[in-house]
Amino acid sequence: MEIAGYRINRPEEIETPAFLIYVDIVKHNIAQVVKVCGSADRVVPHFKTHKSSDILKLQMAGGLTAYKCATMKEAEVLAANGVKEIIVAYPTIHPKKLARFVALVKKYPKIEIKTIISKPEHLKTLSELALANKITIGVYMDLNTGMHRTGAQPGKEAADLYIQTAKTKGLKAIGVHVFDGENLYKPDIAERKALVAQGIGYMRDIWAAAEKAGVPVTDNVAAGSWGFHLYMDEPKIRVSPGTFVYWDHRNATMSELPFKPAALVLGQVVDAHAGKDTVTCDIGSKAASPDQPTNLRFKVAGYPQAELVSQSEEHGVIKLNGAPLKVGDYILAIPGHACTTTVKFPYGLRVNAKGDVTGRYEHDARDRD
To answer: DSSP H helical segments within 143-252, as ranges?
Structure first.
């Protein structure tokens, strides 16, 4: 079976729904992110997209050695696989998480393991932790450039907090961290460029205040998949996209980027309703992430006119709009959000360029301990 350039042999031998990972495309995407950024040293991929040691090894083979993550499980898997740098880009204040963070720092002294702060409460908690364990914790100050999720507010609040961080015992202020989520799903590149320029301006204000106070800024990490390539003219910033490794159909609307969807869901048409011009497949919300608007949760490869119109746990109802799908047909669904579809499956099937399944990639950082 070959659809829109994706080949899968003997789909009847794969119980659906199944998560397929096209390894040649993954390798292509890794090579392209380095090319877009000019150097592997400029890229700090987020581990959340694939949550897999197997995919991590492909990224490391491509020269990517520094990573961001959100959970302690992800940090532990990254450390166990020998990366050089880990940024836990999530406010770490829960006692259990703090204990795991310290254990990781002590177990892997050769790995740079750092985190973020955005409030005085974070400073107090991490300072007490560092002093109690006789360690120094490197921290980035998380800056809210417009997503309004986490981060210090631009201007005096952020500048004062960064300078306070540098003066806090047990902590080492490194620089500024930004996730520019305000760029998400904005197809107009001019609009994204303007938002990125505004965010860089906020960062420069902090750098200037730090310099005036005699406080060092040694590194800055910014951006996500929708804006990372727009920071390349600012050499003080490394960028941290994650979705590039698998890509998805929503990201693919950014025509300026050379990535291709590499992770798809194999499903099957199980019913049909001729009067409604619909078919029902087995790709429900437990197989494709429901965090997107219904019609964007997945696209059927090869049939751009087909549209998902409803979805329940194990069913996806597709309006055909002329697509010649019938009961028994296999389909390939391109997720609307790759990161949150990955975690629906404990592993992905590894598919080579010939369409053969050659093994599996375990999602060993998927679950929380």
So the answer is: 156-166, 189-212
Structure tokens at 160: 């004062």
Give yes or no for a contact between 253 and 319, defined as CB atoms under 8 angstroms apart: no
Q: What fold is seen in the domain 23-246?
A: TIM Barrel (3.20.20)
Contacts of 352 (CB under 8 A, 6+ apart): 23, 24, 358
CATH code for the domain defined by 2-20+258-362 = 2.40.37.20
Collapse the DSSP code of 4 into the 3-class scheme (helix H, G, I; strand E, B; otherwise coil) and give the result.
Answer: coil
Residue 6 scores a pLDDT above 90: yes
In angstroms, the CA 246 to CA 261 distance is: 6
In whole angstroms, what is the distance from residue 82 CA to residue 62 CA?
Answer: 14
Rounded to an integer, what distance in angstroms lies between the CA atom of residue 179 and that of residue 365? 22
For the chain, which residues make up each domain, given as ranges?
Answer: 2-20+258-362, 23-246
CA distance 208 to 276: 62
Q: What pTM was computed for the model?
A: 0.97
In 199-246 the beta strands, taken as DSSP E runs, fall at: 220-222, 237-239
| Across 260-270, average pLDDT | 98
What does the pLDDT look like over 105-141, one tens digit per residue? Answer: 999 999 999 999 999 999 999 999 999 999 999 999 9
Q: Which two tokens stand for residue 285?
A: 């919300």
220-222 and 171-178 strand pairing: parallel
